[in-house]
């Protein structure tokens, strides 16, 4: 197993992508700690993992509350002896409009929340990983320098901001043996609502790939598990492109 005896914390662990990543980690032997704000969603993911023979625990945590995040990660470390992997999969509040049409306050607030939760959760994990002199910090979304899609509003801007944060963490944490990697996705179509209004957006993601394919939740989970494992030990301070070539970050 790729992640046997590893401890992973997944913020947003009750979401669709969070659940997929948690399931992949657990299937590879990791003990996963799911954090989020909705107990029913967290429990549903944990139940699936346990039914498949994996180890999962849940906690209601507001990832915008630094004290709550610190208390949770301290409890995880006390219980498991350390933290090997941390990933924040809390979705940014997307405003899909032309920039000229977006209210300034809403634009700034959404990106501010995205950066705040990423900073809080990464600081909490890094505090313990520095003591261990090891660990993997995964980020999700990534920066696409070749973006040519109008109407993305604050979404790509927010992902670019988080990627800039990840790059700075990489510089500061590498001397402590901590790896930082972003999963560059280009859009995960099986997370989109199954409604006619989303068909064009799904097809656009598929059409932008040279292979005419789009990454799935299962793809995200399997790549995340590999990158976080010892087999991915040479991958750090970079983005891993899992967009089937749709992105050119």
Automatic annotation (TrEMBL):
Species this chain originates from: Kibdelosporangium phytohabitans
Name assigned to this protein: 3-oxoacyl-ACP reductase
Keyword Oxidoreductase carried by entry: yes
Family to which this protein belongs: Belongs to the short-chain dehydrogenases/reductases (SDR) family.
Entry keywords, A to Z: Oxidoreductase
InterPro entries, alphabetized: NAD(P)-bd_dom_sf, SDR_DHRS6-like, SDR_fam
Gene Ontology MF: a single term: oxidoreductase activity
């Amino acid at each position: 197993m790729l992640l046997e005896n590893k401890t992973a914390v997944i913020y947003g662990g009750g979401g669709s992508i969070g659940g997929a990543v948690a399931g992949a980690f657990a299937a590879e032997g990791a003990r996963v700690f799911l954090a989020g704000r909705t107990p029913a969603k967290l429990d549903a993911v944990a139940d699936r993992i346990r039914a498949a023979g994996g180890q999962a625990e849940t906690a209601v945590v507001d990832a915008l509350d630094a004290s709550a995040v610190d208390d949770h990660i301290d409890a995880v470390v006390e219980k498991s002896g350390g933290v090997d992997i941390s990933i924040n999969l809390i979705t940014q509040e997307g405003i899909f409009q032309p920039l000229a049409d977006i209210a300034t306050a809403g634009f700034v607030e959404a990106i501010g929340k995205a950066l705040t939760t990423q900073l809080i959760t990464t600081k909490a994990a890094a505090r313990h990983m520095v003591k261990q002199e090891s660990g993997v910090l995964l980020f999700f979304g990534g920066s696409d320098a070749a973006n040519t899609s109008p109407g993305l509003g604050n979404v790509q801007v927010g992902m670019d901001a988080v990627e800039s944060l990840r790059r700075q963490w990489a510089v500061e944490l590498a001397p402590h043996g901590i790896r930082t990697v972003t999963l560059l996705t280009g859009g995960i179509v099986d997370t989109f609502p199954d409604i006619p209004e989303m068909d064009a957006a799904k097809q656009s993601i598929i059409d932008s790939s040279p292979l005419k394919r789009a990454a799935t939740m299962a793809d995200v989970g399997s790549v995340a598990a590999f990158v976080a494992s010892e087999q991915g030990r040479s991958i750090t301070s970079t983005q891993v492109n899992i967009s089937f070539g749709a992105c050119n970050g």
